[in-house]
Design goal:
The protein is α/β, with parallel strands linked by helices. The chain has 10 helices and 10 strands.
């Protein structure tokens, strides 16, 4: 579904991503691990069309989308839920979701997508008329994910979804990610919480200084000594 080869990106001369190669097969959850500043966010922003790669190639569904912008990637089926749950704080839950569904001109389809989100995220259903900025961090994160799902993506990219959430909510969040995947959405997951990310993913990549240095089945990486000491605190 997604094939990324030799990606590179520099911010004003400072190299952020040097050589990233990865793939996501339909149906998978793929984790992207790495220390702070390894280039994870820059990588997923390029895949989602928010940054234009300076090197390398991105192919999605057999089409070269290396230079495609976000507004082109969303209709193709790629949605990014960026780091920092950027929901619109003055807007209600419902209004935030409607913004995520802007690609669907058909109102019935949009309403159906919203009802589906309320089924997956019951807490959002209870708060549909509430202003997003007054909700808890966990609820805002759920809203950010639901908003990205409103475009019915084939590939959902989540950038650090568990950041700043209490442990109980983190577990709930990972269960939700799994259930979104079980409904047929492939997932590329950037996470600091490597243990949880490896638990729910099929495969994972490790990024070091802008280079993909490892790729393996997640269950193998969980048991790997180098991964354990670098990411799992063991
Ligand atoms: P984190 O987990 O801290 O978000 P990351 O692995 O996602 O890290 P990136 O955010 O992609 O890494 O950052 C990679 C490098 O690029 C870092 O050195 C960072 O300081 C730099 N960088 C990121 N965004 C910008 C920007 N807008 N302008 C300049 N440098 C940037």
């Amino acid at each position: 579904m997604l094939e990324v080869g030799g990606l590179g990106y520099s911010y004003a001369g400072a190299i952020a991503v040097r050589d990233v190669t990865l793939r996501v097969t339909a149906g998978e959850i793929v984790a992207l691990l790495g220390a702070n500043g390894a280039g994870k966010s820059t990588t997923v922003r390029m895949i989602a069309g928010a940054l234009r790669p300076q090197r390398g190639r991105i192919v999605f569904d057999g089409q070269d989308v290396t230079t495609a912008a976000c507004h082109d990637m969303v209709p193709r089926g790629v949605a990014l839920c960026p780091e920092g749950r950027l929901v619109m704080p003055q807007m209600t839950v419902r209004e935030n979701l409607l913004m995520g569904g802007y690609t669907q001109r058909d109102r019935t389809a949009r309403d159906a997508a919203m009802e589906e989100m309320f089924a997956i995220f019951p807490r959002l259903a209870e708060r549909r008329g509430q202003v997003a900025g007054l909700m808890s961090g966990g609820e805002q994160q759920m809203l950010a994910i639901a908003r990205a799902l409103m475009s019915r993506p084939k590939l959902l990219i989540l950038d650090e979804p568990s950041l700043g959430l209490a442990p109980k909510l983190v577990r709930e969040l990972f269960d939700l990610i799994r259930s979104v995947n079980a409904r047929g959405t492939s997932i590329l997951l950037v996470e600091q919480n490597a243990r949880q990310a490896l638990r729910i993913s099929n495969r994972a990549y490790v990024l070091e200084k802008g280079v993909t240095v490892r790729e393996d089945a997640s269950e193998k990486l969980i048991g790997d000594d180098a991964i354990r000491s670098a990411f799992l605190g063991a």
